[in-house]
Amino acid sequence: MPRKKINITEKIETLSILDAKGVVDKKLEPSMSDQLLLDLYRAMVLGRRFDERLLALQRQGRIGTFPPIAGQEASQMGAVAALREDDWMVPAFRETAAEVWRGRSLESVILGNNGCAEAATIDPPGTTMPVSVPVGSQMLHAVGIGWAARYRKEDKVAMTFFGDGATSEGDFHEAMNFAAVFQAPVIFLCQNNHWAISIPRSKQTRSRTIAQKAVAYGMPGIQVDGNDILAVYSAATEAVERARAGRGPTLVECVTYRMQVHTTADDPRRYRSDEELEGWKAKDPIQRFETYLQRKKLLTKKKIAGIEEAVLAQIQAAVDNAEDLMKTMGDPLDMFDHAYAEMPASLAAQREELAAELAAAGKEGADG
Amino acid sequence: MAKMTMAQALNLALQQELAQDDRVVLLGEDVGVDGGVFRVTDGLIDRFGEERVVDTPLAESGIAGMSIGMAVYGLRPVCEMQFSGFSYQAFHQIENHAARLRWRSQGRLSVPMVLRAPYGGGVRALEHHSESREAYYAHTPGLKMVIPSGPRNARALLVSAIRDPDPVIFFEAKAIYRAYREDVPEEEETLPIGQSRKIREGQDLTMVTYGAMVRPTLAAAEELSRKDGIEADVIDLLTVAPLDDSLFTASARQTGRVMVVHEAPRSFGPGAEIMARLVEKSFYYLEVPIARVTGYDVVTPLFSREQHYIPHADRVREAARQMLGEG
Asked: Domain check: are B98 and B72 in the same one?
């Protein structure tokens, strides 16, 4: 056999529709209702302002560590907007705005970031998985969910989120491979925000794009400007339609930027420059979308101010509500709940042990 | 009643659960066309098709992680790790997610999956094919760790595991897959998970064991009776976690002498927990120190040495004789 070139024909596209200045490519502009556009704009503003408020709460010691989403609003909102309510979202941990879009309450986010397991009980979202902290491990769950939907002859799809760092994990490979082999209805949504804490994208992989990794698995991959919500929405919609039609998974790489800290325990000045951050500020996803909507006459300065005001009021109400809720929560004994469907005897005995300790401490407190 | 090996009895359990519940799906490496390397899933793909009996790519984390998603969606996946020695590559899925999703979602989601894996030595296999590391799973809150000891209880426990609302790690002793046959009823039979069983009555000492070690322990008990006039009470745990301490506690309080037998390495093994429970609850009933007859704290040796690693009847008997001052 001679040594010949294997003709791999797949090409990877990169898609941008709305540029950093808010100028739209008319030929590529997706068909979206005015209402959807405005809802998405509001959700992005809510995501940003909520982020800022959470940051302030954290700095005041009123909540614990949390991962901000600033800069990634278009990537996540454009993606989940392509889903039906009964589709599944399988998040990592930096998709707060998208989770809220899917029905998670702000109160739940605040509680979750303040160490309260009860967060999961406030307006629990139907087909959205809880956040998953171990990087990359959640992608396989989306494959199982997608596989099960198809097994049940239901046309639901599963969209899973992860970052550029997660593409180095073994589970990324296993999930991509399983999804392709089983042609599971899964959308792999990579928010390539350029930084995995201090490790830049260039040190995660030598691949020119993350999207091209799809080729090796035999699935379509596309790179989009992740700060361009129209591009993300278009690519995600295409991927969702493909999955729903039984034509298997897609990898969508959203090129975006983490404009904030990794978590509030992180100090990015140790590893990245102010210039880089400034450069990305000029590509802000909300700013360009706002310009676009103004040009479409969907937004005016007055309307924007109204949305800002309403969003801040919504956040304030949620903070107040969450802080009230927390006063009624925090029974330490609830750590024993939901370990199993039925509590084993040995666990019940340990629960009694803590109950006795609490009762004694309470008595001491009362006596003292 | 048909005489069945444990492999056949497990196959019967899978077959009947597949037939009566369309939520049940099998998946793993070589479980379909090949019927599993130990033939536990033999013939199931022919009867139920590749929709229900799924040959997966070779990736343990993938198998476990995908099973978690299937279970969250409402299916009852039964996944197979070809050998428990390879399950560590899926451990993070089991520890981080299968064991925790019920808690993390505060009861909204659950992971009713079974992870089956052959464990233990005695079949002259390669490295990584003879481990007994149930303690890893038993130590993980949110999991159940079940280890049957023979054809009939294996079948009944597997049915219960599949129907259990929580993730169950189900270890099958390779050494007894085909070692002997036992009557297994065709009609449905289940056994409660989390309950131990007394399998021999005696008043002189208590032996606590499970899985592949039940046979050598019973053999030792018979020898002790015949040759030494010592009668052992023998408890088969069947479930390692959550640990049922009721029977061995009662027995220890009668006999005052307890021995734990397991194949797993000694330190921090299941025996350590059993001893701890006895010391906590029955210290004043104990007449002599508790003995452990276990694997050693070494890498499971290759098969030319494994007969000196795996506890055998003579070792159990000798330890019992010493305990009764006859050694």
From this structure: yes
pLDDT tens for each residue of B113-165: 999 999 999 999 999 999 999 999 999 999 999 999 999 999 999 999 999 99
B77 neighbourhood in chain A, CB within 8 Å: 144
Q: How far is CA B29 from the centre of its chain?
A: 21
DSSP A223-252: EEETT-HHHHHHHHHHHHHHHHTT---EEE
Q: What is the CA radius of gyration of chain B?
A: 19
- Residues B216, B237, single domain; the answer is yes
Q: Is residue B138 part of a domain?
A: yes
A79 vs A159, B82, B164, CA distance in Å? 8, 38, 36
Is residue B109 included in any domain, yes or no? yes
Total Cβ atoms within 10 A of residue A315: 18
Q: What is the CATH number of the domain that holds B263?
A: 3.40.50.920
Task: Tell whether pTM > 0.90.
Answer: yes
Residue in A closest to B102 by C-alpha: A338
Interface predicted TM-score (ipTM) over 0.95: yes
CB-based contact, B299 to chain A, within 8 Å: no
Closest alpha carbon within chain B to A126: B108
Interface check for B245 against chain A (CB to CB < 8 A): the answer is: yes
Say whether the peptide bond before residue B311 is cis (omega within 30 degrees of 0): no
> What CATH number is given to the structural domain containing B157?
3.40.50.970
Cα gap A155→B45, rounded to integer Å: 25
B178 and B236 belong to one structural domain: no
Of B92, B128, B129, B308, which is the active-site residue?
B129
CA–CA distance, B167 with B100 (Å, rounded to integer):
10
- Establish if B190 belongs to a structural domain: no
Per-residue pLDDT of B261-313, as tens digits, reads 999 999 999 999 999 999 999 999 999 999 999 999 999 999 999 999 999 99
Count of domains observed in chain B: 2
Verify that B163 and B201 share a domain, yes or no.
no
Longest dimension (CA), chain B: 60
Contact A152, B36 (CB under 8 A): no
Beta-ladder partners of A150: none
Shared domain for B135 and B6, answered yes or no, is yes
B149 & B223 share domain: no
